[in-house]
Amino acid sequence: MEGLAFLGPAALYMISMTITPGPNNLMLTASGANYGYWRTLPHILGIMFGCLVLFSAIALGLGLLFERYPLFQMALKIAGSAYLLYLAWKIASAPPPDLSVRGTGRPLTFWQAAAFQFANPKAWVMGLALMAGFLPAGGNTWWNALMLAGFAELIALPCISLWAGFGMAIARYIRSPRSWRIFNVGMGAMTAACVVFILG
Length: 200
Fold this sequence. Notes:
This is Threonine/homoserine/homoserine lactone efflux protein. By secondary structure, the protein is mainly alpha-helical.
């Protein structure tokens, strides 16, 4: 059980990252508001699949560097933490999203959502920080990477699903720019707090 102790902090990190505003969640909110949850489900599953592939590729490509050059891992932790603090400030100061316009198109498809993760800076920094901060040093790197990436996506599923559900309610209930600003400040603070787990 001690070998799985890292899963607790990793879960807290993934919750704080995937439940906070970002490109994926804002798109899911808009999609939920426009199309409802079930039509948005392929978008949600595409995000999970894309991040699973991205996170695994990050770990398997950087795993040997981490073993041979411990300073590289520390440098990556520091760089990732600095970017997360910047991202937290951007989230906290973000203007309210405009969900008032309902489109007549169709939701993002599974493959479109999966491909988007490779261009999503938040997904990159999330994967880099996850693998740099929580990938176990011992054992089989391939197995550890796949287990951690899969576990991360299981944690992410209910968090990102909430945003599609929120979208359905937001269009009706959360119309105040002030309410959005308060929410964004809270989410920014949670994002900044995850630096403790990365550098800990």
